[in-house]
């Protein structure tokens, strides 16, 4: 596989783009990649047995731009498609893009500059949501990428929460040397791989620029819109389990604590919202997972979750489904407003949910922290 030195004025960036049932989105994605201010690109589109015209669309681009090549495979899922693309793509720098998203024009140049300036093994940048034609910033991602920096993971363990494949550049030598690949046959394959990348990296570059527009689709086809299924939840626990094992093997108490309290729980509230309509099998799987990860001394009462969802998490751990339903239904009724609060004699505050007897709940699960 040809490799070009990072000392060249125009290093080659290899971009892997899996494509499945995205014929309507793929042109915008490829136009954004090919329109990068950094022109030296090798773009490999992996047609993952797509049932629509995605493969044909990709071939049209390959016919008119030599920087694009297409690989056709039987459908094997996102992780397998990315791994297949890695077997074909050229370059000393790697990037990934999902075929329904958009890469801003200067994204690769901004990250490449930081990669070369710092000698980092990978560089990560900010992400915005793309809702129709509206670009919306993501508060927690902006916070993680607030400054231009070069760090190792123990200096900024919160970066473990940036688990996206596609807002980054990776040195190919680092990727191969760390033995990185994407899990196959499981949803949420980004987190285990990115966790391994962060803990193996000697240095991680950070840039504040928005380097990726993540499209929010409302057609129900996005993997992240299918959380009410048992298969989805089972895959989520699998990827969390693998990621936590990687962090524990790294051997830093600080990184492990941040990961358990601030990273692993980050998306649980999305699952908690499904509790009222979920079936019994899904509920029992939720309970078992919460107990596995937070059933010891690092309960979800210590987590970064907001008060309503810390309380919900504790109720899940106790297998108190009717009470968890009451909390979530109250959250829905309040439409974004916080749960009612009661001021305690010591000046602290707790949340108040109609029908939930606070005497039956761990006070830590009801507590409202200063500033919340």
TrEMBL record:
SUPFAM superfamilies: Nucleotide-diphospho-sugar transferases (SSF53448)
Residue ranges of every copy of the Glycosyltransferase 2-like domain listed in the record: 15-173
Cited Gene3D superfamilies: Spore Coat Polysaccharide Biosynthesis Protein SpsA, Chain A
One Pfam family in the UniProt entry: Glycos_transf_2
CDD domains xrefs: Glyco_tranf_GTA_type
Superkingdom of origin: Bacteria
UniProt-recorded name of the protein: Glycosyltransferase 2-like domain-containing protein
